[in-house]
């Protein structure tokens, strides 16, 4: 069953005489429980696609469905509610509120959605435990390493039990060790809970953890590959490195 779907999705800038296409007629289906990686060179439309899938931007034309909701038919309030309840976001820069503790940052989406503070904080503690950060709940972001901050960001993305988690270069601001730990955690989340994950990355090592990789070029899907059964992780990484450098 597809949980995310696009039809002729297009985003363009510029003028009618000289349009600049960030995305051009993209048709994509993502199955429930799938871990999809989106790769491509700089300017290929990766982040634009992710933002359109998450309702953070509006397309010039075309449609996006999340579950049965067509995003273009939703008003601002309904779209905000969908983002809070059905979608989780993880970004390259952690976007944590510096004056709040880790558990308060994680609890914030629930509190904004009307959950009472004690219950929201209790659920935040549970979410932090899932990302091995139970002992860092009272620390502020400045007291955490980059990898720890990204774990907090992942816990915040997951706390409302969203249907889909959208991650934009979540390892791009981390060292190699923290990057490996983060993507392993994303993989475990998919495997343990059937979570749907859509991740933008330029790193073949990260993409190799996915079930499937879509390659974008000049705003269009250039290739679509399923990784399961395609060899060992190291072999897949080697293959992806060659494609990324091509």
Sketch the major β-sheet.
Answer: 6 strands, mixed
Strand adjacency order, main sheet: 6-7-8-3-9-10
Extract low-pLDDT stretches: none
CATH architecture classification name of the largest domain: 3-Layer(aba) Sandwich
**Helix residue percentage:** 25-40%
Q: Can you tell me the CATH topology of the largest domain?
A: Rossmann fold
Strand count: 10
Content of β-strand = 25-35%
Mean pLDDT: 87
**In the CATH hierarchy, what is the superfamily of the largest domain?**
P-loop containing nucleotide triphosphate hydrolases
Count every helix, treating DSSP H or I runs of 4 or more residues as helices. Answer: 8
Termini Cα gap: 33 Å
Describe this entry's structure for a reader.
With 246 residues, the chain is of the alpha/beta class. The chain has 2 domains: 34-67 and 163-246, P-loop containing nucleotide triphosphate hydrolases (Rossmann fold, 3-Layer(aba) Sandwich), CATH 3.40.50; 96-161. It is built from 8 helices and 10 strands. The protein has helices spanning 46-53, 76-86, 102-112, 117-130, 146-158, 176-193, 204-207, 233-245, and strands spanning 2-14, 19-31, 35-39, 61-66, 69-70, 87-91, 164-168, 196-200, 212-217, 220-226. A hairpin with a 2-residue loop joins strand 9 and strand 10. The mean pLDDT is 87.
């Amino acid at each position: 069953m597809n949980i995310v779907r696009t039809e002729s999705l297009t985003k363009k800038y510029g003028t009618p005489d000289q349009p600049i296409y960030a995305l051009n007629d993209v048709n994509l289906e993502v199955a429930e429980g799938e871990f999809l990686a989106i790769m491509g060179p700089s300017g290929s439309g990766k982040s634009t696609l992710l933002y359109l899938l998450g309702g953070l931007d509006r397309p010039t034309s075309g449609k996006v469905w999340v579950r049965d909701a067509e995003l273009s038919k939703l008003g601002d309030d309904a779209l905000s509610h969908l983002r809070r309840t059905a979608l989780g976001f993880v970004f390259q820069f952690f976007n944590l509120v510096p004056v709040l503790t880790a558990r308060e940052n994680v609890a914030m989406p629930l509190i904004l959605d009307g959950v009472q503070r004690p219950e929201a904080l209790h659920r935040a503690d549970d979410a932090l435990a899932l990302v091995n950060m139970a002992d860092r709940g009272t620390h502020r972001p400045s007291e955490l390493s980059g990898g720890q901050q990204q774990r907090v960001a992942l816990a915040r993305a997951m706390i409302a039990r969203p249907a889909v988690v959208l991650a934009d270069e979540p390892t791009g601001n981390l060292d190699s060790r923290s990057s490996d730990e983060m993507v392993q955690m994303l993989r475990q989340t998919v495997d343990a809970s059937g979570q749907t994950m859509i991740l933008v990355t330029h790193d073949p090592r990260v993409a190799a953890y996915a079930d499937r990789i879509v390659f974008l070029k000049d705003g269009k899907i250039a290739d679509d590959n399923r990784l399961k059964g395609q060899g060992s992780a190291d072999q897949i990484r080697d293959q992806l490195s060659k494609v990324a450098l091509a």
